[in-house]
Amino acid sequence: MSSSGWPASIIVAGIRGQASAHRLDARRPGPYRSAALEPEPTTQDMPRVLYADHDYSDIDLERALFEGAGVELFAAQCRTEEEVAAAASGCVGILSQYAPVGEKVIAAVPTLGIVSRIGAGYDNVDTAACERHGVWVANSPDYGIGEVATHALALALALVRNVVAYHRDIQAGEWHYLSSGPLRRASEMTLGIIGLGRIGKRMAHVSRNVFRRIAAFDPYLIDGDFPAYVERARELPGLLAASDVVSIHAPLTEETRGMIDAKALAQMRSGSFLVNTARGAIVDIGDLLAALDSGILGGAGLDVLPVEPVPAGHRLLGHPKVILTPHAAFFSVQSEVDLRRKAARNIVTWLATGRPDYVVVRGTRKPHP
């Protein structure tokens, strides 16, 4: 990562990146079915939307919302751009969870006017290609802010208090408060936050009474955007060197991809902790494991990984200094409803007004040519 950080528009809007046929940090917890469309009645006069992929037990929420707006919804389970392009024929909008949408899709679907991502991040969408062709891109940036922040804090405290290690020791028949080694007082520690967007700010807020100091690195926020209780770090190395716990809340971009590598980890305090609930590809896992083994890191709490789910036999599994959760930081029953509704409503609103609720890329294509 260059010392300048990442573009301001990305910090404000959320997570922006380029699409690829298979995103390494895409969350795919279960097997995908074929991309065959579900049989549905066809109504020529109704605009059509493709639900390119999802891992929900049903899509009744989206179906009811689109039907109420006079929109015909097709559902598929696409894994490649080719599958998306074939399934989206004649559609004006695409609702995507993980399915890639890029140049191939746009070229094959001239009717396409909007792509709405189910989530805050949209690194599975080629935003540059969409912008070139006038296709709107939208997301759901504010659906689970509290959930992600509290999950990050939970991982941080589990590391600081050795909660998982204690549990493991007890399961092995050992019962002693010193079984996992000495513990430090959290109220004497510094929490460093990388990326002070919506979630980063919430993380600072929920952690302010836990840690002695809260510091953050975000090169494209003005000083006035930093809460009074958050100290500003002007450079990433300075934040890493000053923090006992580092929590990542940055977008995934070409600049932040692999940002936490051997060089960055070497700047951290000996025995410090790293938490990542942002995007898995921001952290170089090989370098992370080396830092854990050398003692640079005392532990890591990871909700996101470069490859998900974690491959069988990977060194992360069972590592005594690692806590893993299955890309679940966003989740609560309420946040999932918000997430899905906001993503679908982007398309409904665009059809009604020519502009989605949450704009990532401002397009030029109109719902009614």
Question: How does the SSE layout of this entry go?
Answer:
Blueprint (H helix, E strand, L loop, with lengths): L7 H6 L34 E4 L8 H9 L3 E4 L5 H7 L5 E4 L6 H6 L5 E4 L9 H7 L2 E3 L6 H16 L2 H9 L18 E5 L3 H10 L5 E5 L13 E2 L3 H7 L2 E4 L13 H5 L5 E5 L8 H10 L2 E6 L19 E3 L8 H21 L5 E3 L8
Parallel strand pairs: 1-2, 1-3, 3-4, 4-5, 6-7, 6-9, 7-8, 9-10, 10-11, 11-12
Antiparallel strand pairs: 5-13
Helix pairs in contact: 2-12, 6-8
Provide a descriptive summary of the structure in words.
This protein is α/β, with parallel strands linked by helices. Strand 4, helix 5 (127-133) and strand 5 (136-138) form a beta-alpha-beta unit. It has helices spanning 8-13, 60-68, 81-87, 103-108, 127-133, 145-160, 163-171, 198-207, 236-242, 262-266, 285-294, 333-353; strands at residues 48-51, 72-75, 93-96, 114-117, 136-138, 190-194, 213-217, 231-232, 245-248, 272-276, 297-302, 322-324, 359-361. The strands form two sheets. Strands 8-7-6-9-10-11-12 form a seven-stranded parallel β-sheet, with helices on both faces. It has two domains: 15-143 and 333-361, Rossmann fold (3-Layer(aba) Sandwich), CATH 3.40.50.720; 145-324, NAD(P)-binding Rossmann-like Domain (Rossmann fold), CATH 3.40.50. It contains twelve helices and 13 strands.
